[in-house]
Amino acid sequence: MLAQKVLQGLTKGYTNHPQLERFRAHQDPLAAIGVYLQGIHAEAVSRGYNFDGSKIVHPGPAEIIDVTDGQMVFERGHLLTKLTVRDPERADDLPEGALDPHPLFRVVVGGVASWERP
Questions:
Q1: Domain map of the chain by residue range?
Q2: Contact in structure between 91 and 80 (CB atoms under 8 Å)
């Protein structure tokens, strides 16, 4: 939700957050973040979490965003590191190999995003 507010120009902070590059580069950044948040909302509901979907200001549709396979590998490693500390059982259950991307993303060949710190 913070990313949505940043893209709306409603915050003073986080305006230069590098992970917003993929949304800013989209032809309709608010639609793209809206579709992304819809996916997060659906996952939250399926897990029994509270997520107020009415706060999504532009639910899409939006054109697909390419994400590299290198970025997906990086994200999986980041997730595994967090789960190992926070929920070791869940870390053990994380499947080997590639994870399914968010429906907004299409995986293409490539390296890790330029904004990531190794």
A1: 1-61, 64-117
A2: yes
